[in-house]
Design a protein that fits this description.
heterotrimer, A alpha/beta, B alpha+beta, C mainly alpha, A: alpha/beta, FAD/NAD(P)-binding domain, 4-stranded mixed beta sheet, 22 strands, about 30% helix, globular, B: alpha+beta
Chain lengths: ~400, ~80, ~140
């Protein structure tokens, strides 16, 4: 039996652990946290006031019984010696390693970013910060609620947009539509990195009175005067603000040097193999894969690695399926390595799918073999190549 | 001065413009950024971007489905 | 020994009278389903291969396109005058059947010739009524 060590029990690591056959592998999942968080839930906590418990489950409960769970922190990975060093001094040796520790959000790059995080919370880091943001938003009755982005590579590209729609709905329901302005400040030339998608959602943003500031890359935050300054030299005032910080790869040491200059692990974008190694893989937000950092990516990469570890030649197409929801309708941003995003129609049905996904999430992690056929049918039916002709 | 190369060929959403903006954050005046992309949307995007940010578009060519843009960084404060 | 006691204390708290009745009925239902073999069927259906087949039948580009427009679809289908449709469905079937694979080209002279045929004349009668109705409806839509 070969030993697979998976560092990270999140959306990528947990699914991978549950996909590997018990008879063939000894599977160990390492995570410094006890709980697995359904991260899109941060939006529901921050803007709908939902309880955080809905979106958290102990990692141990999500892993099949035969999978070992080590609740601890990895401090160093030696890809040549095939060893993982833990904070408590223990060593884990492996036959195969999969790095799935996600992205590290660095709040100390942008001046004032940590300060506003402490003051207002956010919807990108922890359930506690999401709860904080709910309170901050609820306390606001005038001025600008600014959602800003410090770097164009961040997980869940439609995240800020969903926050804009949900917060706008909240202010509306409180009768504050004319008193509080939701401002969406983005580094891109359009209201979405892809113009195709921007053309679809821009009318929806404008309809709701959400202000869109393009070419706005947050560079510093003046918390005294409550102003956000952009790299492009512009300023935005705020009453409440949340800025998505620059993302980086794993902070722990990996020997030899396999990270790029943003610390993301360099992989083959199709096979998820770490460059230069045939027994080391990386999946999810921690890699340099040229596609959206999202749960779908981690999930599909997990499937590819599970297949490859069993000797099959599986490849990841780069497929994205990011949900962008307004209050009543939704779209999916569907693209892959060979196709930029295809035009997709805003519909109530897609919005429903998003809610249904939430209900299937935990089951899909615990029993991926049962849900795989359903997801496969969906991904096959909605391949970007097919959608360009058919539309959806 | 520094030469930054960004290979954004075969990049899914969020696409080459994101890779360019990220490279720009770390660049200094005098550096050149060369971006390779296969997304046709990149051509108008990079033109709009240099116009708005005040940087210099030295070269913008397309060959065999690959768009090459060379930007000289001049507008950083 | 202590664990067992804690377990039975928890059960005691949960199993109120109304819950016991519900539990009893549920077990009766499960027993019936088991007798009928339905529980075995459901268990067998929950196999990855069966799910895969069912999934590709239910989830494909055609169904997704229809389901995505379910609100439009039901709205539009609701507007159809079903009484009329029921009466005219045979006529519609015949009309669709009559469309040839490779239609002949008929010019003005050919048309005048065909107009001597009583069937064509009757068809013309239908067409004229159809044209009148469409013309009226088009004018209405413009307003």
């Amino acid at each position: 039996m070969e030993k697979v060590v998976i560092i990270g029990g999140g959306g990528g690591g947990a699914i991978l652990a549950n996909l590997l056959p018990e008879r063939e592998f000894e599977i160990v999942v390492v995570d410094r946290e006890e709980y697995h968080i359904f991260q899109p839930g941060y939006l529901w906590i921050a803007f709908k006031g939902w309880r955080k418990e809905i979106f958290m489950k102990p990692i141990r409960s999500l892993l099949k019984p035969h999978v070992k769970f080590v609740h601890g922190e990895a401090t160093s990975v030696d890809l040549n010696e095939r060893k993982v060093l833990m904070k408590d001094g223990k060593e884990l040796s492996y036959d195969y390693i999969v790095i799935a520790t996600g992205a590290h959000l660095n709040y100390d790059v942008i001046d004032g970013n940590r300060k506003i995080l402490d003051e207002f919370g956010d919807f990108y880091s922890t359930v506690e910060n999401a709860e904080k943001l709910w309170n901050a938003v609820w306390r606001t009755s005038k001025g600008n609620f600014v959602i800003g982005v410090a770097d164009p590579i961040y997980k869940c590209p439609p995240g800020p947009h969903k926050a804009a729609f949900l917060s706008s709905e909240l202010f509306s329901r409180r009768g504050l539509k004319d008193k509080v302005k939701v401002v969406l400040a983005l580094p891109f030339p359009h209201s979405y990195p892809s113009k195709t998608i921007a053309d679809i959602i821009e009318p929806e943003l404008e309809k709701r009175g959400i202000e869109i500031r393009t070419f706005f890359t947050v560079d510093s935050i003046d918390t005294e005067n409550k102003k956000i300054v952009s790299l492009e030299g512009e300023e935005l005032e705020y009453s409440v603000a949340t800025v998505i910080p620059p993302h980086e790869g794993p902070q722990y040491e990996i020997k030899p040097e396999v990270k790029d200059d943003n610390n993301f692990v360099k992989i083959d974008k199709y096979t998820s193999q770490i460059e230069g190694f045939d027994d080391a893989y990386a999946i999810g937000d921690c890699t340099n894969a040229p596609t959206s950092k999202s749960g779908v990516t981690a999930h599909l990469q997990a499937e590819v690695v599970a297949e490859r570890l069993q000797g099959y030649d599986a490849r990841y197409s780069g497929r994205t399926n990011c949900p962008l929801i307004t209050d009543g309708k939704g779209i999916f941003i569907i693209s892959d390595y060979d196709h930029p995003p295809v035009p997709v129609r805003l519909s109530a049905f897609k919005r429903l799918l998003e809610d249904l996904f939430l209900t299937t999430y935990w089951g899909a992690i615990r029993y991926p073999e049962l849900w795989q056929p359903v997801f496969h049918a969906y991904f096959n039916a909605t391949e970007p190549g097919k959608l360009v002709e058919l539309g959806w | 001065m520094g030469e930054i190369k960004v290979d954004a060929r075969g990049m899914a959403c969020p696409g080459p413009i994101s890779a360019l903006i990220r490279a720009y954050r770390k660049a200094n005046n005098g550096d050149t950024i060369e971006v390779l992309a296969t997304d046709p949307g990149f051509k108008p995007d990079v033109q709009a971007w240099v116009k708005r940010t005040g940087n210099e578009l030295v070269e913008l060519t397309e060959e065999g489905g690959v768009i090459k843009a060379v930007i000289k960084v001049t507008a950083k404060k | 020994m202590a664990e067992k006691n804690i377990g039975s204390v928890k059960l005691d708290r949960i199993l109120t009278e109304d819950k016991i009745e519900a539990l009893d009925k549920t077990l009766q239902l499960l027993s019936k389903l088991n007798e009928l073999g339905i529980l075995d069927t459901v268990t067998d259906i929950l196999e990855p291969e069966v799910i895969e087949r069912a999934a590709s039948l239910i989830i494909n580009p055609s169904t997704l396109r229809i389901v995505d427009r379910i609100d439009q679809l039901t709205g539009t289908l609701g507007k159809i005058d079903y009484d009329t449709l029921e009466k005219r469905i045979n006529l519609l079937n015949e009309a669709l059947k009559s469309i040839p694979e490779k239609p002949k080209r008929i010019g003005l002279l050919g048309l005048l010739g065909e107009l001597r045929d009583p069937d064509v004349q009757r068809g013309m009668g239908v067409l004229i009524e159809l044209l009148k109705a469409i013309g009226k409806a088009a004018e209405k839509q413009q307003k």
